[in-house]
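Listing S7. Sequence submitted for prediction.
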Amino acid sequence: MTHNEIASAIRNKVSDALSGNISDQAFSIEQLMDEIDLSRSSIVNKLARGGKLSVNGLVQSIDTIPIEVIEPTDSCVRAVSGPCSGIPGIKVPRITDVFGKGGVEYLGLVNLQESIDVYFDPNDIEMHKFRVRTSRRPYAWVDSSVDANNMNNIYLFNLGKFNSLRYLKIRAVFDNPGSINILDPDAEFREYAAPGYVQEAIIDSITEKYIRYFRQMSVKPAAVPNTQNDNIT
């Protein structure tokens, strides 16, 4: 199902359970789409930490991300054990960190002809630097902290012959699929970034929440019994 279809399914299920009586407490499809992303994040983290979920069905693509010089952060300096000033990089919506570097399926040339190794752990960067096989290869470090716009900085190193690159492509598991959909003009027609059983879990969770909420709103408080004694005259 698409993002919009999941939201519509939730609304219809809630309406059916309440016999259509939600006109006075209407909730929009847009509101539901935001809640779907939040519910997906919670369910994905829970299943992945329990080893019950892979990245299949969760990955989304951003095809042309501009490379820019990113303002260095303290975490970058600590990660690379050196200055980060003037280092090129990209900004992407927050990547789900529960899969570690497995959460980034591809980072590299837009034409898919060359990939860049991606690391979250600074220790992996050190291994990359000192292995003969990888020491000259380009690599990227993902700063897991986010900025005010909920974006991750990804710093690029050892670009070498790719120094003149202007754009990169990324395929990754993002924390908020809706933030990627804004960048994709065809997003409304694409499958929502979650396997079918995760989509069903999202629908059930949000439907149950709204049914419980609306039923509680419709219950009138019981009359408070008068326990005060009448005045004796």
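Caption to Listing S7: primary sequence and predicted structure tokens for the chain studied. The chain has two domains: 1-57+178-213, 59-172. The beta strands are 60-66, 68-69, 88-93, 104-108, 117-119, 139-146, 151-157, 167-172.
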